[in-house]
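If it is no trouble, might I ask you for a protein's amino acid sequence along with its backbone structure tokens?
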Amino acid sequence: MTTALLSSAYCAPVQWYQKLNRYDAVVVEQYDNFLKQTYRNRCIIATANGTQTLTIPVEKGDSDKCLMRDVRISDHGNWRRLHWNALATAYGDSPFFDYYADDLRPFYEQRFEFLFDFNMQLTEKLCELLDITPNISLSEEYVQDVESGVDDFRDTIRPKHPMPDADFIPKPYYQVYAQRHGFIPNLSILDLLFNMGNEALFYL
């Protein structure tokens, strides 16, 4: 049985969901320290002007070190409305935005206290929409010694300085702004879903 070890992620990139779909089991780490400028609280989408990063603000703790499972979402800046409006503007003309909007909009209307819980519930909904049924479990402690047969992608899948991943070779799919910007690989899974609909499963 093949197992992938992943960090928690907000509307994770296509590469992250490829692991969910291809591995027999996936363990999502919840006892690592929260790191800024990672997919834990940000996703990248395509807009008419190029890529845009959507970042969930988090509350600053007493220490720089805070376990991912303990990170609280901040209500600063009305981010829920801003994120949803950004998605509607970027993908309103995509083939499937209207089809999935009612399933996803509630996540931007409901208040979640913890980032990890928000990420996991949104992941569960996205898996449902993608029609994939991954075997996901949560780490019971920080996974320091990775067992044989477990592939660790916690540091591989990240926005800046991603590490090589021989199993992930992005292939172009339809994107609304491809004629303007060319194909942009490994964006948020939302980009694949809104542009390809139920064909997203075959891409993964």
Observations:
- The CA atoms of residues 46 and 197 lie 16 Å apart.
